[in-house]
Design a protein that fits this description.
The complex is a heterodimer of chains A (345) and B (285).
Chain A: E1 3-12, E2 15-25, E3 30-34, H1 41-49, E4 56-61, E5 64-65, H2 71-74, E6 76-79, H3 91-100, H4 110-123, H5 139-152, E7 157-161, H6 169-186, E8 189-194, H7 197-203, E9 206-211, E10 214-219, H8 221-226, H9 231-236, E11 241-248, E12 251-254, E13 261-265, E14 270-273, E15 282-290, E16 295-302, E17 307-313, H10 314-320, E18 327-332, E19 336-339, E20 342-343
Parallel strand pairs in A: 3-8, 3-9, 6-7, 7-8
Antiparallel strand pairs in A: 1-2, 1-4, 4-5, 9-10, 11-12, 11-13, 13-19, 14-18, 15-16, 15-18, 16-17, 19-20
Chain B: H1 17-46, H2 50-56, H3 61-94, H4 100-112, H5 115-126, H6 133-138, H7 147-158, H8 160-173, H9 176-183, H10 188-199, H11 201-217, H12 220-226, H13 236-245, H14 249-284
Helix pairs in contact in B: 1-14, 3-7, 3-8, 3-11, 5-7, 5-12, 7-11, 7-12, 8-11, 9-10, 11-14, 13-14
Classes of the chains: A alpha+beta (345), B mainly alpha (285).
Chain lengths: 345, 285
């Protein structure tokens, strides 16, 4: 089912959580709402679910306005950050809940409910934990039960609020991959909220980057990463070096005196060499080298004392044989120029 | 957890054995003088002339009537406050609304107001010279010096108990589970019965027990509105006073022992509830 959000506004007292937000989510997609805390992403998700009322604008599912419908009528599956499992019910009862509370005419038979629950428990690989209480499960298991419980009612859309936020790094990684697989199997339109750019870029079909109650950019992970439309998106989606600059006859120059233009360069987009490669090369001094990891991270300072981060492959690092305190040249291979937060080149 | 500490704690973080023993000793002496001795005294006097005299104390028609009246007043007051307490705790714990702070203070009011004052306000409202007195007597309804007044006074002094026990729990548990139930298609009533209520059932049970103990034991407010008509408007605490003033010590203390037993039962249930929630918590961590 497709979701359309049109001009949604939400205020909490004087704080504007959502400022005229519009977003289209096509049927069957897995979309990430990505942003720092306070950017409005969870509020937007809760408004889509009907757990929160918008002050203005509308939400529609498959073209039908559902703004006035309650969460109950919208038939959304919602997965909470802290699982929100019913603590006094077993795993089985948790997953069966949505089916058991249906009115008599549409409630499946006892056997059908049982079959459906075990089918879902197989899907989350927790069939043998059916009789346990949530308190007896690990965090990752609880989150999987929460997902199965949401899927049991065959929701029209699946909404996940920071689904892996409370889990440790290793489990997050596994569940991330698992969520992607699950989505490909079940195919239900899904939206998940995250503040982790890596998670969003890895799992989602499309990413909506939010900041200060607005959507800054929507696109495929590659689009938002490669062609960020604003300095915020550029900054949020990865490490970045920031310089003042100016544009001279079509070429960008880094100039610490310049005002108005900001030049962004990713650490891996800086070429490091013993000789200046072009007139835009900068002379820097190496302050620190961290060679542990897949790439070597070098910290250097410019002549005017600004810190620059450079990342280079292990092989290149070995060829150059860089040492601490050495003076070398860096040259941007790729850069982005922003004026007033908008991209100009 | 305390039991997980090593047997020998470093001296720097624990008091000397002498201080420890002194503190424990003071506690026990205090509890002994102010609680255990009086409690023992009640039973000693009640049973002083043998079990036969003890049992005979309950055969007096006035005493039996007072027991019946106390049971009736609690049987009405406790369910009323159960409903009110759950509703108030739910409203306060789960929703944000204007005047919430005021409502919390109002719930606590009976704790801070003298029961005698509470009783007097009912006399002023419903007594024959009170605000509604004229209207009530014109319609032949008697509230003061009758059972309705006793029930009203009992409800008033006991209404914070259930709400107060539930509130911290409902606030701590937040709304997540209710919201989850809602998105899964449960209506408000199903959410309340299947999600909210089971999560607070132990606190609720304890609140009801406390409420009941107070309802049966209330003296001040009931004394003002009752009128002390023997066999008609005397509750157990009032009957104890009447018997005592008539120098009928054995019957007075025998009835008092019933109330004391109620207190003991409350204590046992409270310990059981606390033990149970401790076990549940240990399971959760």
């Amino acid at each position: 089912m497709s979701i359309a959000v049109r001009n949604v506004v939400k205020k909490f007292g004087t704080f504007t959580a959502l400022d005229n937000v519009s977003l289209d989510i096509p049927d069957g997609r897995l979309v990430a709402l990505l942003g720092p805390s306070g950017s409005g992403k969870t509020t937007l998700l809760r408004i889509i679910a009907g757990l929160e009322n918008a002050d203005g604008g509308e939400v529609s599912f498959d073209g039908r306005d559902v703004s006035r419908r309650s969460a109950r009528e919208r038939r959304v599956g919602f997965v909470f950050q802290h699982y929100a499992l019913f603590r006094h019910m077993t795993v089985f009862e948790n997953v069966a809940f949505g089916l058991r509370v249906r009115s008599r005419e549409v409630r499946p038979t006892k056997d059908a409910i049982r079959a459906r629950v075990f089918e879902l428990l197989d899907l989350i690989q927790l069939r043998n934990q059916a009789g346990r209480l949530p308190s007896q499960l690990s965090g990752g298991q609880r989150q999987r039960v929460a997902l199965a419980r949401a899927l049991a009612v065959e929701p029209s859309v699946l909404l996940l609020d920071e689904p892996f936020g409370a889990l440790d790094a290793k489990v997050r990684q596994e569940l991330r991959r698992w969520l992607r697989q699950l989505h490909d199997e079940v195919g239900v339109t899904s939206v998940f909220v995250t503040h982790d750019q890596e998670e969003a870029l890895e799992v989602a079909d499309a990413v909506a980057v939010m900041n200060g109650g607005r959507i800054e950019q929507v696109g495929t992970p590659e689009e938002v990463y490669r062609r960020p439309v604003s300095s915020f998106v550029y900054n949020f989606l990865g490490n970045v070096n920031l310089f003042h600059g100016r544009i001279d006859a079509g070429t960008t120059r880094i100039d610490r005196e310049a005002t108005g233009h900001l030049v962004f360069v990713r650490p891996h987009d800086l070429e490091i060499a013993r000789r200046p490669a072009s007139s835009s090369s900068l002379h820097v001094t190496i302050e620190h080298i961290n060679a542990a990891g897949p790439v070597v991270k070098v910290e250097a300072t410019t002549e005017w004392g600004a810190l620059v981060r450079v990342e280079l492959p292990q092989q290149r690092f070995a060829d150059l044989a860089l040492t601490k305190g050495e003076k070398i040249f860096i040259t941007p291979r790729d850069l982005a120029v922003f004026a007033d937060g908008r991209r100009v080149s | 957890m305390v039991s997980a500490l090593p047997a020998t704690t470093p001296a720097a973080v624990s008091e000397s054995p002498l201080v420890k023993r002194l503190l424990v000793g003071i506690c026990i002496a205090f509890l002994g003088i102010f609680l255990l001795v009086p409690l023992g005294c009640v039973f000693a006097v009640a049973l002083g002339h043998g079990i036969g005299a003890y049992l005979a104390s309950f055969r007096g028609p006035d005493t039996l009537a007072s027991i019946r009246l106390t049971l009736l007043a609690s049987a009405i007051a406790v369910p009323c406050n159960l409903v009110f307490g759950v509703a108030a705790a739910w409203a306060i714990g789960k929703f944000e609304f204007f005047g919430k702070g005021l409502l919390i203070s109002l719930v606590d009011l009976p704790f801070s107001i003298s029961p005698v004052v509470a009783g007097l306000t009912y006399v002023l409202l419903f007594g024959s010279h009170g605000w509604f007195g004229g209207w009530l007597s014109a319609h032949n309804v008697q509230i003061i010096f009758a059972v309705p007044g006793i029930v009203l006074a009992t409800i008033f002094v006991t209404f914070p108990f259930v709400a107060r026990e539930l509130l911290p729990m409902m606030t701590a548990q937040g709304n997540d589970e209710e919201e989850a139930a809602l998105t899964l298609g449960a209506n408000g009533w199903q959410t309340f019965l299947k999600v909210t209520l089971p999560n607070v059932k132990w606190a609720l049970l304890y609140g009801v027990i406390l409420c009941n103990a107070r309802a049966m034991g209330e003296f001040g407010a009931v004394s003002v509105v009752s009128g002390h008509i023997r066999g008609l408007t005397n509750t157990m605490p009032l009957q104890i006073e009447v018997l005592y003033n008539d120098y009928l010590f054995v019957p007075a203390f025998a009835v008092a022992s019933l109330l004391a037993l109620l207190a003991l039962a409350t204590l046992v249930v409270k310990s059981a509830v606390e033990w149970r929630s401790a076990v549940l918590e240990r399971g959760a961590s």
